[in-house]
Amino acid sequence: MEEEFASRVSLTSKSGLNAIYPSRDPEMISFTGGFPDANLFPTQELGNSFQNVIGGAQTPFQYQIGQESEPLREQISKLLAADGTQVSPSKIMVTQGAQQGLDLVAKLLINKGDGLVVEGPTYIGALAAFDAYEPTYYTVEMEEDGMNLADLKKILIQQQVKLIYTIPDFQNPTGTVMSLAKRKQLIELANRYNVLIIEDAPYRWLRYEGKSLPTLKSLDTQDRVIQLGSFSKILAPALRLGWLTAGKGLFERLQELKGGSDLETSSLMIQTVNYYLTHYDLDAHLNQLQKSYQVKRNAMMTAMENYLPDFAHYMRPQGGFFTWLTVPKDLDLEKIQNSQLKPNFHVMMIPSTNLFPDKKHCNGARINFSNVTLSQIDSGIQRLANGLSSGYQKQSV
Q1: Could you report the per-residue pLDDT of 271-303, keeping only the tens digit for each?
Q2: Residues near 115 by Cβ (< 8 Å), separated by ≥ 6?
Q3: Quick one: which of 78, 75, 81, 105 has its CA closest to 214?
Q4: CA distance 140 to 174
Q5: Could you tell me what percentage of the chain is helix, strand and coil, using 3-state DSSP and rounding each to the nearest 5?
Q6: For residues 334 and 287, is the Cβ–Cβ distance under 8 A?
Q7: Coil, helix or strand for 347?
Q8: 3-state secondary structure of 74
Q9: With CB atoms counted within 10 Å of each terminal CB, which end of the chain scores lower, N or C?
Q10: First to last CA, the chain
């Protein structure tokens, strides 16, 4: 029998998310996935935390609806406060990673055809989450200090926009940081044109140079900012724990939606992370992450400077997991990857095609440096440079 699937299935199946997963080619050097370095996971501390939770006086294996997350929400509130963002624990929702937060917000707010502003390029997983709800996308070009707010203002004047999605700190995929002036202006525009903002902040604590800037949530004056955070990049992805904060009215409706989605986030994982945060030094762990990833970022910048051809340009990120590569507009990096990089040079990146809603931007690529060794960075960028040169010559003929 031929199945008739909902329309959202065909929409989300074209997201390109499968491209981030590891290749089975043993020779492949992959700069695709936004994975943390597994060698930096606090394995022993998390293991001890887990053992203490399952060996405790109360069983962690039963439903804990409405009870399980309060201690962790208090810990998250303290974490946010130390970063300058004051949020009551009662306005913090623990989610199945920040990705669930994206889906819940989209489910709550986006009807078919509703205006949604995204950065161009943007996080591939966000587009996968949004696509199912069939918004009308408006893409705002990224500049060196964040999205082009002059273009955003024109869109807000001319179009009906309900929601703006942004990653202000070490943007995925470009690594860009939104300037303080633009953060303030973005809040002002949202207030003036009655628009909500999703602030996605998974890389917020992974700064390697420069001064930390206030979150959009801390600058919010009218409860317009929905902020998402995650333990995936700073502890371990397999925990599948993130959080969401929002104004009272939005928060209550999001809680209702979450209950219908999963009843509760894993109590076992919540208690494990709470134990870790209570008994171990997260700041020391973050400091180790920052130092280690800075070394990799520096190695990536050196390799790109040494090997990339003159027609290729790249960003120097101040933090996060990614740099952004661009080539002349007449080059299609997805075609070059499929014809040259993967089969002949055994190296992969994420071409820009699926990082824009219209899938028509082909001359950019996201390159990850967190989940590769220093030797892989050097040899992988050398392979990438050779493959780009080969592809350039073939496309120019």
Answers
A1: 999 999 999 999 999 999 999 999 999 999 999
A2: 135, 136, 138, 159, 160, 161, 162, 163
A3: 81
A4: 14
A5: 45, 15, 40
A6: no
A7: strand
A8: helix
A9: N
A10: 49
